[in-house]
Amino acid sequence: MTAYLGDVAALARKDLRLELRARDTLPAMALFVVATLVVFHFALPGGASEDAAYGLLWVALVFTALLGLGRAWAPESEAGALDGLVLATSDRSAIWLGKALATLAFLLAAEIVALPAFALFFAPLDGPALLGVLLASVGICAVGSLVSAMAAAARGREVLLPLLFLPLAIPLVVGGVGSSVSPEPGAYLAFLGLYDAVFAILSWAAFEYVVTE
Amino acid sequence: MSITRPSLSALAALAVALAAASVLMTFFVAPEDVDQGLSQKIFYVHVPIALTAYACFGLGAWKALRLLLTRGERYDLESYTGIHQGTIFGALTLVTGSIWAKASWGVWWTWSSNQLVLFLVLFLFYCAYFMLRFSIEPGPQRERISAVYALFGVALIPVSFFAIRLASDFIHPTVFTRDGPQMTGSMFAAFCTSWAAITLLAYVMYRTELAGKRTDVNLRDIREALAR
Amino acid sequence: MPLGDVARRARSEGAAAVSEAVVRAVGLEKRYGLRTVLRDVSFELESGGALVVTGPNGAGKSTLLRLIGGLAAPSRGLLEIGVERRRVGFLGHEPLVYRELSALENLDLYGRLYGVPERRERIGMLLGRFGLWEARRQRISSYSRGMTQRLALCRALLHEPDLVVLDEPHASLDDEGLALLDAELGTLAAAGKTLVVATHDPARVAALATGSIVLGHA
């Protein structure tokens, strides 16, 4: 078990190190989400009602996540490193978990920029809303990392990833918006937790089959 | 023709007979709905089609699971055909649902019908299945990735259902309500006949498509063997 | 329909030094959709032996080596590999490294994943042996093709594998690199490691080869 977690940690660290060096994905995500929020302001004639604004937050978050997910497996594709990891790891699901954790770190970092910007431009965010963002981010990265690996094996992966990801992201958007808007966010937060549990386990178990023959 | 395995043409004939019977029962046996009138008859087609779509997706996922666990060669085509049939019936669900909405409430689409919205999400998901599948080179990796995606689909069905239920609480004020029809005996009989007909039809279509695809594969194998 | 089988037998401790087949292939076939890349490949490779795989481009050498290395499974036929999956070292067409990490960082990651004991020392020793010590902190993206190939060799040998599968290891190497590689192959063979080498230049490895297969177009 500790060996497994050690593998996961080493792999996640590798992704963090790569991003710190290249510094391309994270700034792009942060800039993209702020730009998107600004576009939304102009896109709504007559201003946004507070409820609608929360919807916009979630659209912005989902598409920002897509930006990051599109690049998630790029380092592994460059020189075939994914095959190397498949050969070297005793449990291939560690590859998925390491990648999902690193992607989550990037997404949370982008949200640290996005959420204050949103609160500034549109509407305040309370505890349940933030918890919803956290829970949904976990789900996004769990499912997104798996689906991104599928797309990486295909032609036209940049176009394919959104098609694969968006239907799966719909429940997350419902949970996220609900936790921001509803007077009783508990049900939505519980639902997000359920989504995370179901799809994290499914992704964890299925990853082996996606990267091996 | 063996007793245990009726031929495909016999099943097709039976499906046609059942379909004819269900049409008769729908229009002449089942009573007309007080509120919705004649348009309610679409229910006898719409709901069985929806149930059949779920069944096809379930079949596709089951075959996908078998593929991943046993690596059997036949499961890939079977899973694909199941998903394909499911998508066809899913599209039909959306169409019949839309017709029913227009006939009942005067709009071609409504977000307050949870089932319709669920099918829209699933339709998007399963359309992406085909995009995914045909973007990958044929081979074991394509089979496995398709199988994993098919399994994600059946997980998405209940999760989306809950999501849509939750969403309808606050996102879309319920304007139209439709109670599940309280079925009288004759309505139930008509419904079951229709359901049986459509399920059998789906099965026949599944077997036919699968046979066609297998024939394609065999033909290519033969061509290849002759070329050597 | 017969399924492709990859059976792995754990190496039994204290097995007699008598040559036992480390790799056994019977009627291997590999298809990708409509394309048949390998057909009816059969061979046996005994422990400590060296199998040389030759054939024209496109004949399936790389595919065969991926099967033996554990990256793919045969469509039909039997493939028995008497070595645990992570005791196999694999060198493919791609170096299987991270271009934006340094040699040290790449090998450190693989060393952790493989569970290499005394990782630092082993990495240092390999980098030195293949003449990469000076460049150990540079990113792989700055390496020449020859240097990258040398690093890939280090990666393949890092965990002291019992079965070493090399797909055209001589490619891209300069004279110095070739000499280092030949020396290493000799060392591996002398240490009783089992080798599989695909090459366009069988004469180079003729001295240590114990068997060979020639793949034609399927």
Annotation keywords:
heterotrimer, A: 213 residues, mainly alpha, 9 helices, 85% helix, globular, B: 228 residues, 77% helix
Concise synopsis of the structure shown:
By secondary structure, chain A is mainly α. Helix content of chain A is 85%, strand content 0%. Chains in contact: A-B, A-C, B-C.
Described by the principal axes of the CA atoms, the overall outline of chain A is globular
Compute the gyration radius of chain B: what is it? 20 Å
The ordered H/E elements of chain B are HHHHHH
Largest interface: A-B, 35 and 33 residues
Provide the low-confidence segments of chain A as ranges: none
Calculate the terminal CA-CA distance of chain A, rounded to whole Å: 25 Å
Number of domains of chain A: 1
**Low-pLDDT runs of chain B:** 172-177
Q: What is the average per-residue confidence, as pLDDT of chain B, rounded to a whole number?
A: 87
Percentage beta strand of chain B: under 5%
How many β-strand runs of chain B?
A: 0
The helix-strand sequence of chain A is: HHHHHHHHH
Structural class of chain B: mainly alpha
| Count of discrete alpha- or pi-helical segments spanning 4 or more residues of chain B | 6
Number of strands of chain A: 0
Helix fraction of chain B by DSSP (H/I, runs of at least 4) = over 70%
Structural class of chain A: mainly alpha
Strand content of chain A: under 5%
Could you say which overall geometry of chain B the principal axes of the C-alpha atoms support?
A: globular
What would you say this structure looks like, in words?
- The complex is a heterotrimer of chains A (213), B (228) and C (218).
- Chain A has 213 residues and is mostly helical.
- Chain A has one domain.
- Chain A contains 9 helices and no strands.
- Chain A has helices spanning 2-22, 25-43, 50-70, 74-78, 81-88, 93-121, 127-152, 157-181, 186-211.
- In chain A, α2 (25-43) runs antiparallel to α3 (50-70).
- Chain B has one domain.
- The two termini of chain B are 37 Å apart.
- Chain B is mainly alpha-helical.
- Chain B is built from 6 helices and no strands.
- The longest helix of chain B has 43 residues, at 185-227.
- Chain B has helices spanning 8-29, 43-70, 75-105, 114-133, 140-170, 185-227.
- By secondary structure, chain C is α/β, with parallel strands linked by helices.
- Chain C has a domain at 96-161.
- A 5-stranded parallel sheet of chain C has the order 6-7-8-4-9, sandwiched between helices. Chain C has a 4-stranded mixed sheet with strand order 1-5-2-3, with helices on one face.
- In chain C, β2 and β3 form a beta hairpin.
- Chain C is globular and about 45 Å long.
- The two termini of chain C are 20 Å apart.
- At the A-B interface, α7, α8 and α9 of A face α4 and α5 of B.
